[in-house]
């Protein structure tokens, strides 16, 4: 039966792939001359040797250069050779060997005679008991990654377990790899670590990869070590070194594999340092720079990086998996564990694809959500799925899991300096942070609202480029929310190529799409217009710079001015201040949450205080800061990573564009928390971004620097009162989770009073609607 399948499928493949074979032969001849085929002596069934056909992928004098591990960067391989190896076109002539009876479609790959010494007599006899194959278990699971020991073990495993069904599975896995739907051709990352060395099925890894395709539509790659129970994978959005940036990057000995989601903005300077030290770099990719730094410095390499990143490193030398996240959590990274299997990914949906059992909803996370309007890290909506925290690392070994913090903003100390010195340093840092974030091999632009943050970034961008900066804005028919006139004014001032569109009157139909990309409830309505402006930008560019982070660093939100205008804001003790500030920014008070819950839910959550659990630990770290900086530090740790950085990342990645945030350069963050609170919030008049606005006025003009701040949002509350009230009721009533968690009478009270106008429950109803819409998708 197997032989009949070999003959039929090989003949059909030769017939169908005839044009591909001819084109490949021509490409090899043009690239490196004749001959286009070569025959290599290999060992076949019963130990008999035969000549195995291949398209030539190496230079003609390859033997003189010497042997290389197939996982390494082999200098003998030609330009066309790299392509036909990556796509496995070099193996197609072996269909002739199959028809001649020397090989099978599936089997252990044929060894050269010299490899006989690597086997025991029994293992060699077992291996030679079947015909060798064009593809096999090792090729389906490993491709060019892995050690020779891994390959031999998988070849022997195939012989022991061979069946027609296994052959069909191996052919399907191999086809998946070749078409980009399988495991080795993948700016999201994913993978796993199993302490007991159990292999995750290739189809599970392929499913994880497919769930992240929106983050990286350009390329895919997986390094899988099934015998060690570890894999690291990447879906890539090509920004830097489009041709040479394929991930994973492998060390020369094939023992280290690295993938990353994000960008290292100082990679040019780091690459120059490495070359000066004699390190060979084969590409212009920032990921290769990470690999070479890790080889030389170990985990300490991360302190050298200026960027936004989530990194995974499989280090077979230590038999360990290392995960590292950037300083403030610009790029996401989640982990989950079940039964000794650890999964990691850039988005929760990828983890859910591969978990052995569906996790339970985390009621404590929902409890915190009702305080913050988002779920604060490290919690997620699912039990057992957690964030790798910003500025932290996790290391998985056979002994267990280690974790630590590699960057800590709270170590800064406030220092008084004259305004002139402050302004000079502020502008120098922000200018350089903007300059290095313009490094890309694809079109880039900026979001421009005409506010002080985005206007400052665009003004600095214009300093460093010859062509007009591409800027993007969406406007609204409602003048209370429309900033398009200010954006046009700023664009004209800085000579931008500006694109603006008026958004639809009601954006609620976009909410389910938003929540699909968020993977958990978020009550913030500004995700919807952020997705809209991201869609606009994605028609023209792949990278945008944004002004995110300026409000949290320099007290730009109205809530700061409102709270610190209170008579007791600076007179109460630290504990009183911290509790009262938390209460002031909370969505639902503890009492309101208890009233909202059904009695059985209220009883389960009564003893969980969101302040004690989620906020107090952060306040404890920054008690040496003044009151303003304590409030800002809390938002840096919770609001940014939990909501405000999720917004540009997920909404940008939803349409495959990358958002970069110059304000969140580590130098600017440390500078901001060396700046006393009075430089940010004026004690005299409550002026927000006090010294910041003074510093940028010569750059952007007084009208843009001091114009009244508008929130980038949409009038959801009015939609809930009028045309969308029925829709809201239907959404809430149709959610099983909402019905299970929340008291119907309390929800009804809020709906009625909001519609009548006797109370404004916009934010609270938004939060409940987000739970319901998310629930409908899970």
Automatic annotation (TrEMBL):
What EC number(s) would the UniProt record show?
Answer: 6.3.5.4
Identify the stretch annotated as signal peptide in this record: 1-22
What SUPFAM superfamilies does the record tag this protein with?
Adenine nucleotide alpha hydrolases-like, N-terminal nucleophile aminohydrolases (Ntn hydrolases)
**Xref: InterPro entries:** Asn_synth_AEB, Asn_synthase, ASN_synthetase/amidase, AsnB_N, Bact_transf, GATase_2_dom, Ntn_hydrolases_N, Rossmann-like_a/b/a_fold
**Which UniProt keyword terms apply here?**
ATP-binding, Glutamine amidotransferase, Ligase, Nucleotide-binding, Signal
List the residue ranges forming a coiled coil, or say none: none
Q: Which Pfam families match?
A: Asn_synthase, Bac_transf, GATase_7
- Name one molecular function that GO assigns to this entry: ATP binding
Q: What is the lineage of its organism?
A: Bacteria, Pseudomonadati, Pseudomonadota, Betaproteobacteria, Burkholderiales
PROSITE patterns, sorted: GATASE_TYPE_2
| BP-aspect Gene Ontology terms | asparagine biosynthetic process
UniProt name for this protein: asparagine synthase (glutamine-hydrolyzing)
The residues covered by the Glutamine amidotransferase type-2 domain are 187-399
The annotated pathway is:
Amino-acid biosynthesis; L-asparagine biosynthesis; L-asparagine from L-aspartate (L-Gln route): step 1/1
Any Gene Ontology CC annotation: cytosol
Organism in which the protein naturally occurs: Ramlibacter montanisoli
Reactions listed under catalytic activity: L-aspartate + L-glutamine + ATP + H2O = L-asparagine + L-glutamate + AMP + diphosphate + H(+)
């Amino acid at each position: 039966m197997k032989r009949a399948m070999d003959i039929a499928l090989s003949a059909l493949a030769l017939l169908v792939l005839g044009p591909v074979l001819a084109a490949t032969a021509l490409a090899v001849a043009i690239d490196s001359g004749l001959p286009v085929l070569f025959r290599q002596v290999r060992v076949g069934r019963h130990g008999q040797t035969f000549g195995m056909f291949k398209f030539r992928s190496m230079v003609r004098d390859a033997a003189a250069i010497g042997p290389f591990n197939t996982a390494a960067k082999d200098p003998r391989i030609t330009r066309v050779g790299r392509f036909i190896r990556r796509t496995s076109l070099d193996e197609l002539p072996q269909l002739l060997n199959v028809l001649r009876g020397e090989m099978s479609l599936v089997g252990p790959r044929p060894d050269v005679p010299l490899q006989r010494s690597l086997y025991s007599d029994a293992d060699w006899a077992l291996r030679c008991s079947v015909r060798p194959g064009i593809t096999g278990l090792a090729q389906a699971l490993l491709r060019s990654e892995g050690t020779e020991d891994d390959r031999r073990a998988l070849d022997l495993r195939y012989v022991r377990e061979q069946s027609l069904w296994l052959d069909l599975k191996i052919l399907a896995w191999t086809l998946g790899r070749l078409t980009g739907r399988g495991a080795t051709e993948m700016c999201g990352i994913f993978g796993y670590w199993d302490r007991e060395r159990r292999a995750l099925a290739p189809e599970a890894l392929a499913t994880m990869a497919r769930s992240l395709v929106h983050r990286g539509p350009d390329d895919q790659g997986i390094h899988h070590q099934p015998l060690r129970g570890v894999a690291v994978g990447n879906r890539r959005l090509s920004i830097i070194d489009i041709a040479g940036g394929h991930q994973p990057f492998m060390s020369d000995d094939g023992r280290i594999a690295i993938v990353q989601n994000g960008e290292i903005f100082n990679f040019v300077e780091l690459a120059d340092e490495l070359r000066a030290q004699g390190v060979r770099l084969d590409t212009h990719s920032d990921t290769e720079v990470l690999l070479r730094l890790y080889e030389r410095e170990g985990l300490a390499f991360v302190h050298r990086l200026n960027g936004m990143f989530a990194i995974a490193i499989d280090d077979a030398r230590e038999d360990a998996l290392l995960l590292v996240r950037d300083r403030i959590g610009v790029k996401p990274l989640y982990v989950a564990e079940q039964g000794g299997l650890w999964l990691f990914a850039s988005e929760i949906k990828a983890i859910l694809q591969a978990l052995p059992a569906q996790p339970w909803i985390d009621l404590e996370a929902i409890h915190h959500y009702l305080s913050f309007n988002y779920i604060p890290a490290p919690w997620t909506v699912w039990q057992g799925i957690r964030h790798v925290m910003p500025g932290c690392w996790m290391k998985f070994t056979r002994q267990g899991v280690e974790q630590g913090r590699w960057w800590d903003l709270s170590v800064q100390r406030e220092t008084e300096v004259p305004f002139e010195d402050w302004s000079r340093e502020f502008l120098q840092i922000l200018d350089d942070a903007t300059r290095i974030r313009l490094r890309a091999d694809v079109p880039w632009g900026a979001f421009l609202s005409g506010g002080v943050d985005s206007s400052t970034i665009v003004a600095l961008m214009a300093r460093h480029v010859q062509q007009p900066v591409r800027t993007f804005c969406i406007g609204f028919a409602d003048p209370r929310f429309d900033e398009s006139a200010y954006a046009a004014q700023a664009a004209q001032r800085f000579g931008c190529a500006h694109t603006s569109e008026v958004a639809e009157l009601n954006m609620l139909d976009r909410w389910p799409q938003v929540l699909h990309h968020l993977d958990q409830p978020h009550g913030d309505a500004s995700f919807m217009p952020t997705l809209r402006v991201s869609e606009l930008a994605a028609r023209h560019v792949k990278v945008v710079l944004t002004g995110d982070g300026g409000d949290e660093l320099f007290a730009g939100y109205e809530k700061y001015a409102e709270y610190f205008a209170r008579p007791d804001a600076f007179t109460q003790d630290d504990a009183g201040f911290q509790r009262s500030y938390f209460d002031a920014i909370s969505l639902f008070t503890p009492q309101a949450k208890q009233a909202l819950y059904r009695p059985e839910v209220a009883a389960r959550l009564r003893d969980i205080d969101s302040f004690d659990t989620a906020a107090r630990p952060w306040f404890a770290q920054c008690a040496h800061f003044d009151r303003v900086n304590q409030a800002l530090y809390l938002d840096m740790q919770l609001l940014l990573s939990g909501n405000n950085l999720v917004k540009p990342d997920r909404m940008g990645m939803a349409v495959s564009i990358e958002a970069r945030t110059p304000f969140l350069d580590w130098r600017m963050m440390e500078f901001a928390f060396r700046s006393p609170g009075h430089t940010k919030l004026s004690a005299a008049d409550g002026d927000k971004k006090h010294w910041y606005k003074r510093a940028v006025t010569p750059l952007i003009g007084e009208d843009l620097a001091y114009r009244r701040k508008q929130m980038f949002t949409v009038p959801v509350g009015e939609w809930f009162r009028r045309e969308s009230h029925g829709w809201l009721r239907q959404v809430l009533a149709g959610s099983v989770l909402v019905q299970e968690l929340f008291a119907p009478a309390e929800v009804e009270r809020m709906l009625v009073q909001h519609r009548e106008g006797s109370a404004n429950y916009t934010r609270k109803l938004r939060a409940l609607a987000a739970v319901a819409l998310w629930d409908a998708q899970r």
